[in-house]
């Protein structure tokens, strides 16, 4: 929550070497995010929450999306392809490796969720 809101909001515990930590939220709190004219709620018991793919990419990764339009290939995955403007930006220090890794993580989660929805809808259609 501190990261999303850009300042100190709540106490946090240390993060282990595997990148995981203990959840410390004990009550629900709603925060207003002026830049997106939206609200976010920090609630005990939630580890993750999904938003739609467009929201994640548009708000969190606008710089990566902007750079991806400059890649040599239109289907660039921004991994090891030659002519990738995103990887060049990481090398040049324009965007951080941390931001890029978060982008890949959310992209992977979105892809898994989309596969899950397709599979679920396919099963639903077979029943009818």
UniProtKB/TrEMBL annotation:
Signal peptide: none
SUPFAM superfamilies, alphabetized: P-loop containing nucleoside triphosphate hydrolases
Domain EngC GTPase span(s) in chain numbering: 2-51
Pfam families: RsgA_GTPase
GO molecular function, one term: GTPase activity
PANTHER family xrefs: SMALL RIBOSOMAL SUBUNIT BIOGENESIS GTPASE RSGA, SMALL RIBOSOMAL SUBUNIT BIOGENESIS GTPASE RSGA 1, MITOCHONDRIAL-RELATED
Name listed for the protein in its UniProt record: Ribosome small subunit-dependent GTPase A
Organism: Helcococcus kunzii ATCC 51366
């Amino acid at each position: 929550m501190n990261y999303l809101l850009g300042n100190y909001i709540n106490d946090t515990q240390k993060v282990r070497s595997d990148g995981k930590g203990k959840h410390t939220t004990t009550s629900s709190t709603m925060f207003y995010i002026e830049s997106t004219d939206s609200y976010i709620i920090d609630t005990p018991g939630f580890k993750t929450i999904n938003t739609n793919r467009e929201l994640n990419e548009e708000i969190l990764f606008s710089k990566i999306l902007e750079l991806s339009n400059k890649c040599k290939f239109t289907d660039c995955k921004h991994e090891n392809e030659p002519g990738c403007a995103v990887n060049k930006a990481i090398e040049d220090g324009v965007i951080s490796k941390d931001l890029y890794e978060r982008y890949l993580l959310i992209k992977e989660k979105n892809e898994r969720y989309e596969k899950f929805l397709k599979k679920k809808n396919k099963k639903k259609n077979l029943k009818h």
